[in-house]
Amino acid sequence: MNRKQRRADSKTGTTTATRIPNALEKMLLQKAIGHHQAGQFREAEAGYREILAANPRHTDALGYLGLLAHHAGHSDAGIELLRKAIGSDRTNPEPHYNLARVLSDLGRDDEAIVHNRKALELAPDFPGAHTNLAALLLLRGRAIEALTVAANGLRTDNSAGLRSTFVLALQSADPSTIEANPQIVALLVRALNEPWARPRDLAAAAGAILLRRPSMKRCVARLADGTPAQLSDLFDAADLASLASEGLFDALLTAAPVTTIDVERVVTGVCRALLGAIDRGDADAEEAAKSWLPLAASIAQQSFLNEYVAGVSEQENEQIGRLSDSITAALEKNEAVAPVRLAVLASYLPLHTLKSADRLAGQEGLAPLRALIAQQVVNPRGEDAIRPTIEHLTAIEDDVSQKVRQQYEENPYPRWTRLAADTQALPLDHYMRARLPGAPYKAMGKGAPEVLVAGCGTGQHAIQRALQFAGANVLAVDLSLNSLSYAVRKTRELGLTNLSYAQADILALPADRMFDVVDSSGVLHHLKNPLDGWRKLSGLVKPGGLMHIGLYSALARQDINAARTALKAQGRDYSAADVRHLRADIAGRAAGDPMHNITRFSDFFSLSECRDLLFHVQEHQFTIPQIAAFLAENGFTFLGFETPARANYLRRFPQDKAATNLENWAAFEKENPATFAQMYQFWIQKS
To answer: Which parts of the chain sit beneath pLDDT 50?
Structure first.
């Protein structure tokens, strides 16, 4: 050892050993990493230590040994090793990234954020760093920062994990605070079109961004007094071109019901202006309306999705009648129908209700409306053909079940269009561990789980389960044949073969078939005796099996209960016309009015869901203590809620790392009554 080496070692506290040749060192490192990845931790540790014996400042060996120490329960030692790795190479981002992961595991999120940012400073495209940093920021309640980080990462990293984090940040942020920059908007358009989540979960963010557009602001101002507008009062040619090139308005209109009052007013105002221009029979006005065709077609699709929820004046009804008669006469004579006229009519009534509607698909001049005609004519005809083929698994004899069935036969919903593209099939055990980290879940070891979806509606949830659980065999049942027909059509479009449907009353399901997973979301609270129904379904769960349950929260629905009480006193019914008039009344009230608070529920923005919201023939609501009591009485372990509020809960109760303490959750909901505005959605496991 020469004097230079001794001086260097005296400063670092290390001793100089015989150096391993670089080629051999690389080979030893790869071998140790291989052991590490295979779960052979002793062999991996021995390999890293062999490298460090010869080169005590080897960055990778120090860092990976630090991770091993952390995972072995020696986190302090792991952190020290990772800090040494950072000190050995100040330009290497990986030790910062790994130290951030360790600190995050220990709940030291602010420190983890610092090191994740440093990793990105050293390597702006470091794999996983954007996802982890955005997730950490969400945990700290910094949703807008998380959104920016995720958006920046998506420039080079199109991973499903980062897309999901972007969506979660959008959902967690106050829509009014989301920056409407081109990057965010372009990603939101992708998220709606591909989609990256259920489009309706992104509708609030899309609506808020649209309302910052000067053209939309002008429209809202023009329509504020409720008087009809001319097309020229709304958007000019430049406005239409700008909206079309950006794509956000079109993506929202064709993906899910609009859930923002002012955007809905713009859509309704455009409909009325287009209808008026066509009805006047003014050649110049109708020619001008042609430039609106793309927007008119998208609005027509929106109207079908929300079940024509907007109110219609007597004047509009007269205009619709004349337009409908004109188009019907043209079809019966095999005459061409002007696309803009058809699109406007489709904004007020579904095209499959027209006589000779089947002739629309054959008109070459209607090519720009292919998607609209498929939605409103071809698909409903397909569902008509499917309906007689659906299996009848049980009789429907319960009086409440019969009433609920009738309500859903009249209007099956939701009319969903697109399924999240990021659904990746995982073994059931892997899915549960990823979905609910830290939960007291006992692995089932099921390679091909049997799954029951009890109350599947139009199939969106059942299809997701069939795609999520690797090897799953899914049976989905519902009361409504119309809902099931929609579900079967969508399932066939996706080419799924592991999902079957049947009409059944969950109260009458036979007890001779047991399931590994029973999923019933948004169903039990519509039974006459929900707890009896829950017990019935519990009996179909195998020992050690799972249930996913969705129930209405009494605390979250206080505004709804107040509105229902007021409506009951007024003697309102729940006809479609009455729902439309009632919506117009509620939407026009001041922001502080208790009835106006109903507009914060997404269900307000489609006809059937609004009717359910205010007039369902049967609904019960629950509290967290009631849920806890049922689980205790029936031998179930609570595994966790599925909610974007999980991060906020963990900040409030950091000691409950698994987020499974129901007493804490009850306190959290009391402090934040809107937490479960949609539903309690949670997993439980049978003893």
So the answer is: 1-16
